[in-house]
Amino acid sequence: MKAKTEINPGICGLPSTIEVESDDMQQITITGTSKCPAIVKLINDLNNGELDAYECCLGKMDESPVYVKSFNTVTHVACPVPSGIIKAIEVAAGLALPKDVEIKLSKID
User: Fold this and answer.
1) What is the DSSP letter of 22?
2) What are phi and psi of 49, to 5 degrees?
3) 19, 30 in Cβ contact below 8 A?
4) CB count in 10 Å sphere of residue 50
5) How far is CA 15 from each of CA 10, 18, 27, 108, rounded to the nearest angstrom?
6) What value, to the nearest 5°, has the Cα angle with vertex 33 and ends 30 and 38?
7) Counting Cβ atoms within 10 Å, is residue 55 exposed (0-12), middle (13-18) or buried (19+)?
8) In the chain, which ranges are continuous DSSP H helix?
9) Helices 37-46 and 81-92: crossing angle, nearest 10°?
10) How far apart are CA 53 and CA 26, in angstroms?
11) Which of 1, 57, 93, 106 is deepest in the core (most CB within 10 A)?
């Protein structure tokens, strides 16, 4: 199964497109593009070995390979891309149905 997510992270203006593929609904492959050099490095780091969807999505946040590798590459703590990657993994591995996620921000005076 395949899943794709397009992430517009907000004010930085550095969009990412992530594709996740799983033939057996457990082992996954991640590919993608981004205008952000940190996310490009993260995608490359995530492709440096086999990834298990269950390890990425069903454990504790600080043990997920996506977040562990993000810790060493992503320089903005509020970046939504790692979460978007995990959502795409869930869909590709049959752990969740595809449904858009939304965060809306506004300044209140």
Assistant:
1) -
2) 130, 170
3) yes
4) 9
5) 8, 10, 26, 26
6) 90
7) middle
8) 37-46, 53-57, 65-73, 81-92
9) 30
10) 5
11) 93
Of 70, 77, 80, nearest in space to 7 by CA: 80
| Overall average pLDDT of the 47-55 stretch | 89
Q: Which tokens hold the place of 18?
A: 């992530």
pTM, two decimals, is 0.94
Is the dihedral angle over the CA atoms 38, 43, 47, 49 positive or is it negative?
Answer: positive
C-alpha separations of 90 from 3, 11, 36, 72, 85 in Å: 9, 27, 23, 23, 9
Collapsing DSSP to helix, strand or coil, 3 comes out as: strand
Domain ranges of the chain: 2-92
Report the pLDDT averaged over residues 17-38.
95
Mean pLDDT, to the nearest integer, of 24-40?
96
What distance in Å separates the CA atoms of residue 5 and residue 24, rounded to the nearest whole number?
20
- Tokens at residue 6, please? 């397009």
